[in-house]
Design a protein that fits this description.
alpha/beta; nine-stranded mixed beta sheet; globular; Glutamine amidotransferase domain-containing protein; GATASE; single chain
């Protein structure tokens, strides 16, 4: 049931809650709603990583969809990943707003990118309704990053709107309804520090990468306010 005038959004969670996030935040759902939510909204959670998807006849009830990051490869062939890709294609055809990622994705040639990174905004990019809430888009944003994959080639019709010294495609838009972000604007410093600890414990990253990431976090604060208006 939808209350008249109420905005309704769906979080498509492609990762499982860590013990830390469950303990401190009650799960990633609360992290995302805190970062992107506002008053007078309803948010629903679908754990797509576990095969939980909205039904096709429900899609029209939502004003927008947010796809979380994931430790799984976007180019994998797990059944839930293929189903998620089909859902995103359907949402695009319906012109639904989607905050996600896409295009040709693969392992980053320069390796892991973890920490706080300055993302530079392309000058004079085309208007995107996702960004209408911003009075003026800043020339650069500091965003928390944690990835070893990157977008090699944006989808057809996409426009790159942000890049960094590390990654050529940090943000892209397709028309008015799709916005892709490489980084994690929903992350807080403590979430990333806990993730770094877990990556070290699992020997997924080298100690030097972890130390460099922590130094970046100490040196500056991530830009979070702007995402509240998107």
């Amino acid at each position: 049931m939808r209350i008249e005038g109420e905005k309704r959004y769906a979080l498509l969670l492609a990762a499982r809650d860590s013990d830390y996030v469950k303990k401190v935040y009650g799960g990633y759902f609360n992290v995302f709603v805190a970062a992107f939510g506002g008053g007078g909204e309803r948010w629903d959670l679908f754990r797509v990583v576990d095969g939980e998807f909205p039904s096709m006849n429900e899609l029209h009830n939502y004003d927008g969809f947010v796809v979380s990051g994931s430790p799984y490869d976007a180019y994998g062939d797990d059944s839930w990943i293929l189903e998620l890709c089909f859902l995103l294609q359907t949402l695009d055809a319906m012109q639904k707003k989607v905050l996600a990622f896409g295009g040709k994705v693969g392992k980053a040639y320069s390796g892991w990118d973890i920490g706080l990174r300055k993302v530079k905004i392309v000058k004079d990019f085309s208007s995107c309704s996702f960004l209408d809430g911003l009075d003026e888009f800043p020339p650069a944003l500091s965003i928390i990053e944690c990835h070893q994959d990157e977008v090699w080639e944006v989808p057809a019709g996409a426009e790159v709107i942000a890049f960094s010294d590390k990654t050529g495609v940090e943000m892209f838009a397709i028309g008015d309804n799709i916005l892709g972000i490489q980084g994690h604007p929903e992350y807080t410093k403590d979430i990333l520090n806990n993730l770094i600890d877990r990556l070290l414990t699992n020997d997924a990253i080298e100690k030097g990468i972890a130390e460099d990431a922590r130094l970046k976090l100490q040196a500056a604060e991530p830009d979070r306010k702007c995402w509240e208006r998107i």
